[in-house]
Amino acid sequence: MLPDSNSDPIDTPSPVDRVILPSLETPTLTKAELAELLFERLGLNKRESKDMVEAFFEIVNEALVQGTDVKLSGFGNFAIRRKAPRPGRNPRTGEPIPIKARNVVTFHASHKLKAIVQGDVPPAEEFE
């Protein structure tokens, strides 16, 4: 909720202000932005930063394609879940349509990530 023009500004930070990556201006974090953050914060050159980001996502993709869960400590878990076939319905026509069985990727956030998003940021030593 935004304060009205007659009230004092609220001192509590918004969820965007509490984000660990304060240099991000867009609500979407792209691979290019991740590479730029590695360049700025770790001192890697831009090519190394881009390669590191690409390698990370390639490893995650390969693991998920093979059916292996991906667990990122302090962040969350990615898992493949098999969805059974089921009857569906075309919302426009109401016509019944069978929905095929498929694999879907699910993500479950860790308790640490949930606490950060809620603003209950744990002490910094827990991230080391």
TrEMBL record:
Organism, scientific name: Ideonella lacteola
Family per record: Belongs to the bacterial histone-like protein family.
Assembly and binders: Heterodimer of an alpha and a beta chain.
PROSITE patterns: HISTONE_LIKE (PS00045)
Alphabetic keyword roster: DNA recombination, DNA-binding, Transcription, Transcription regulation, Translation regulation
Organism phylogeny: Bacteria, Pseudomonadati, Pseudomonadota, Betaproteobacteria, Burkholderiales
Protein name, as recorded: Integration host factor subunit alpha
Keyword match DNA-binding: yes
Function noted in UniProt: This protein is one of the two subunits of integration host factor, a specific DNA-binding protein that functions in genetic recombination as well as in transcriptional and translational control.
The keyword NADP appears for this protein: no
